[in-house]
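Q&A log
Question type: sequence-to-structure
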Amino acid sequence: MKKINKKLSQALIAKERAQKMKSYYKKHYLSADSHFSEQKRNQNSKIKDLKEMIRSLENEVTSLEDEIKGFLSEEEVKTFQNGKYTDEVRAVYEDLLCWGVGTENVQKVVRTVLAKLAGVECGRLPKETFSRYMFLEARRLAQIHVAENLLSNWESGGKTLYSDGTSKYGHHYGTCDIGDRDGNIIVTGMREMSGGEAETYLENLKQILSDISECVTYNDNSEAGLQKIVASIKNTMSNRHIVQKAFNSLLKNYRQEILPNVIKGWDELNKNEKSKLSRMNDFFCGLHYVVGLADQAEAALKVWDHILYGEQSVSSIAHGGYSKGESGTLRLIRTVCKSVQEKGCEKSGRPVQFLTFLQAETPFRSVQLSPFKGNRFNIIFHNAAGVFFLFDALRVFFERSKEENKLLKAVFYDLQVSSFLAGCRALGLINKLVSSPLWRVLEFKDEHVVDMSYR
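Response status: OK
Response body:
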């Protein structure tokens, strides 16, 4: 239905354009001088052709209108022909599944849309089991698309490999994407791995690329396809983890081994040319520098606490509280957010009461703190600045509410320690002068990644 309406609209637009062109040439034909007889003959020919085009388009419009009427007059849409579901049905199912519609609901969505928007009933439709298999079919089509993109112009090179890994519930997963010269990033795959070692990452990459190559080589020469894709990779982009650095080194060595297999005339190249083709560029995520900076800041704060207090218990620890092995400054930042940030502790937190207090008794209209959960980069610097900014209001509020539960009491005692406040001030200054400006620059799209080395 949508396809037919699109054709009808295109035909009507083409008809209108042809009529305008006909009027234009006819007008100029009548006003032309006799000295332009050849031009007149050409215009006559064009007018004739345009009339034929208009006649053809009018016939197409009529045909499309009849087709729409016939479609709307049918009581049931045909979905199953020659022993299989039509390609249109399969395409609709794939789209709906990719858009997040549950496998048990796809059939219901299709029937509802046809019945309520088009006024037609739908015949046989695939059920939940078929929908589950459609995920595999969609995955295969995606792999074919990826393989065609990566292998069609592999000789041009210049591709960038983005790799990363993570652990969840004891399982380790690795993923890799490949970007081209135009900045288009293709997701090649994600797999569960036996461990997080650099060698495992390399084998995971080779397995993913081999599976992709098989889609277009039909198992005949998937190894050659794998080697061509690897040869086209000139850059790597990853975090600053030691495993990623080791993986980059292994990838370079493997790439150097297979280059003679895929580059024609490799043996005739001189040493400089081989070196140029073998060289790779390693880029690292700048935001992970901010994470490392936070880790080092916390280590320095622990040392500072030890210099000031040694083994002496101070603040909330001296009043029955406990520590997770963190510095007093970080504990203060974390527990303040747990107490008064809107996504803090649901049991002991008081975010609504604190916001009401701020709006009623201070000039502040909002709580300038962010949740620790879901935030990794820059979070301790940002929230340290927020704690220092709200310090006076926090002391008054926790003085009033400290007896309500142990969390609020612990925060109250930590707020009494001046060195913790000084730590928040130092971290807040880093947020203001270093980490936040760096983050903005890193996300500034008009600056090339290579230029970041000069900052």
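Response note: The chain has a mean pLDDT of 84.
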